[in-house]
Amino acid sequence: MFYCIIVPLAWLVWHILFRIRVVGKENLIRDGSFIIAPNHISAIDPVFVVIARFWGRRMLILGKEELFAIHPVISWMLRHVGVVPVHRGKGDTEAVEKAIEYVRSGNGALVFPEGTRTKDGNLGRLKSGVFVIASQAHAPIIPCRLIYRGGKPGLFRRCTVVFGKPIPAETLDMGDTYSMARLRECKKLLETELERLLEEHRDAQ
Predict the structure, then answer these.
(1) CA-to-CA dists, residue 58 to 2, 6, 35, 102, 180, angstroms
(2) What is the DSSP letter of 151?
(3) How many distinct structural domains can be found in the chain?
(4) Sign of the CA dihedral 46, 43, 115, 5?
(5) Which of 4, 36, 110, 143 could covalently link to 164 via disulfide, CB atoms 3.0 to 4.6 Å apart?
(6) Which domain holds residue 133?
C-alpha cells in the first residue's frame, strides 16, 4: 500500500522538479520476471527509473548499505519501497540470493551493473552480480540508459530514461558453473547495448 502511494507522489514531485522523457517504454515487461540494468551516475537514479516505469508490481532494488544509516525514517521508507541493502566489497551473497529468489518467483528487480556511481558519467566496469541473478533466476535483462542534460541531474534539467530491448534469459544463461569467458561474453553484450542506447540518444546530453 505504501508503495502504491509513494510512487504516484514521487512521480508528481519529480515531474515538477525535473523534465523527464521516457523512451522505449514498450520494451518493459508487464508480467513475469525481469531485471532492469541501468548505468549509474547519481544517488537519485533509482527514482528516475521507478518513475519512468511507473506501473506494475513493486520491484526489488539493490542499494548500498550506507543509505540505511542516514536516518531510521529513511531506512523504514527504503525497505517499504523494496530496497535491499548491499554490503559492497564484501561479496554480499545474501542480497544476491534474495534477489534471485524474488525474480525467480515472477517479479522484477532493479540492479545497477556497475555497482557504484561513475564520476565522469561514462559507463564503468560491469560487475558480475546482475548476470548471476539473471542466470540463476532465468530472467531477461532490460538495458536502461539514464542520460542527464549536462551530464548530471539538476533542477528543471532534462533527464532521458531509455529502455532497450530485453536481452533474453537464454542468452544470459551461464549454466551451473560460471566460466570467466562466458561471464565476459554476457558483460560485453550488456555493455554494447548500454553504449548503443547512449549513441542513439546522444542529442539528449
Answers:
(1) 10, 11, 12, 11, 33
(2) G
(3) 1
(4) negative
(5) 143
(6) 2-7+22-204
The ranges of the chain with pLDDT < 70 are 1, 65-71, 73-80, 88-92
- With beta carbons less than 8 A apart as the criterion, state whether 110 and 50 touch: yes
Only one residue has cell 532465468, namely 138
Rg (the chain; Cα; Å): 16
| CA angle in degrees (0–180, nearest 5) for 161-162-168 | 135
Over the stretch 144-190, which tens digit does the pLDDT of each residue have?
999 999 888 888 889 999 999 999 999 999 887 778 899 999 999 99
Q: Which helix (H) or strand (E) holds 190?
A: helix 180-200
Residues near 101 by beta carbon (within 8 Å), at least 6 away in sequence: 137
Please give the helix or strand (H or E) that residue 138 lies within, else none: none
Contact partners, residue 112, CB within 8 Å, separation at least 6: 37, 38, 39, 40, 45, 62, 130
Cell triple for 39:
548505468
| Closest CA relative to residue 39, chosen from 162, 129, 138, 131 | 162
Closest-CA residue to 18 (of 43, 41, 51, 40): 51
CA angle 42, 53, 136 (to 5 degrees): 85
**Is the pTM of the predicted complex or chain greater than 0.85?**
yes
